[in-house]
Amino acid sequence: MEKTLNRIHPVSDPEATYFLQVSWEKDLGTGFGVILSDGQCAWTGTASEAEISREAADMEMNREKYVEELKKALIAGEESAGKYNFAIS
């Protein structure tokens, strides 16, 4: 299993720091798990392969392109800094 951990500063609260861990087996397109933490609390979730396909279709985006964008937003880290915004709600 592969994992990444990135520090994010959401646009909804720019002074706050969160940590986003993403874990996956083969690639993000086959599903992944997430853990979001503010250092005091943690929230977990998963995205299945079917959910990823459904979201790509809902956005009228080629599935492979959608998975590439997920990689850039969730696991690329510093190379994508400033290109993606996160909002915590």
From TrEMBL:
This is DNA repair protein XRCC4. Keywords: Coiled coil, DNA damage, DNA repair, Nucleus. Transmembrane segments: none annotated. GO terms for molecular function: DNA binding. It comes from the Eukaryota. GO terms for biological process: double-strand break repair via nonhomologous end joining; immunoglobulin V(D)J recombination; response to X-ray. GO terms for cellular component: DNA ligase IV complex; DNA-dependent protein kinase-DNA ligase 4 complex. It comes from Eudyptes sclateri (Erect-crested penguin). It is found in: Nucleus.
